[in-house]
């Protein structure tokens, strides 16, 4: 096939989609990358936007700027409205984008376990808008407490509940603690921000369940030292504008709070459902698309699903986690597979994820790292976390800006992006 013959359409400009597009730079194909946003977002650092440590521009890069030197790739800012497999077209409104190979990398969304009404009271961390909303809610709570004379109502404003004890919940809890105990110190006249109560709620018997138990214990110990209450084996029962109800130690507890942050569950994009309806793809119980060993959809060897949307497995049958490194490796793999087919080379080996380990930061000089062959925590783990995340940022400019901002935050304990934008919830 010639370059003009083979058209690759990629839906989603996250880690999987972007890495697939970049890996096709020198392939004899025409690439079209479609995303409803015009930027690539580094989601692992959204919690720092939500707590004022970074601004959104620090962790996002315009897709057109990232791909401007890749002449075989065009970027379309649009939302996919349908899929036509007989005609091999991706539908965006009235427009049809033809494809020969299709890569779906549409990511995931927040999931509230069937309680969709909780979303308006407990935003998650999947988008820039949600991060800035959370930032406004957190900072606004301190502002409301400053205005409030009633002790009970003031304590309600100064109580922050984070639901979910995975890496996002742990990082979010630690960041709020640092904000309350250090950044906002001496910023108010009638209240002490350090009196804030931060509660991390986890349904399992320990936080950071994917990590070795000893690292989970170290993480909980570090959070406790920072003033964070950790409730494990606890079930969230209800979320209301002024309180939550939690089953803790087999007792229902009512916690008065105006700020709840969701870090407990995600579901794949609804594009998976559209795919199943259009071509009969099989979905697992969470709505992810079950893929073959080469990440293609059964019966459609030119349609690939990667990242959080894919129900892919290790060789032993266990599910791959919804992590950025998984999506990155899948994007590169599918790009290489398409290139091999076009060039008439032997088929690629089945996809195999190279799991380099897990890490989570807790706060200043506190993190946990699990490399499988080595586990460590503390300052060294924290610097390891910083280095890895700096290197994963797409643009050099972002790396430099974030590095400078982190250095300034470390020296001064200041968080410069403490802006309250938008309307606060009633």
What does this structure look like?
It is a single chain. Helix content is 31%, strand content 25%. The chain has 426 residues and is of the alpha/beta class. A hairpin with a 4-residue loop joins β24 and β25. The longest helix has 20 residues.
Question: What would a concise description of this structure say?
Answer:
By secondary structure, the protein is α/β, with parallel strands linked by helices.
Question: What key attributes describe this structure?
Answer:
single chain; 426 residues; alpha/beta; 6-stranded mixed beta sheet; 4-stranded parallel beta sheet; 11 helices; 25 strands; 25% strand; globular
State the low-pLDDT regions, or none. none
Summed up, the helix count is 11
Question: What class would the helix/strand composition place it in?
Answer: alpha/beta
Mean pLDDT across residues: 94
- What's the story with the biggest beta sheet? 6 strands, mixed
- Counting DSSP E segments of at least 2 residues, the number of strands comes to 25
First and last CA, distance:
60 Å
Shape: globular
Query: What multimeric state do the chains show?
Result: single chain
Give the proportion of residues in helices.
25-40%
Q: How do the strands of the widest beta sheet line up side by side?
A: 5-2-1-9-21-20
Rg over CA atoms: 23 Å
Estimate what percentage of residues fall within beta strands. 15-25%
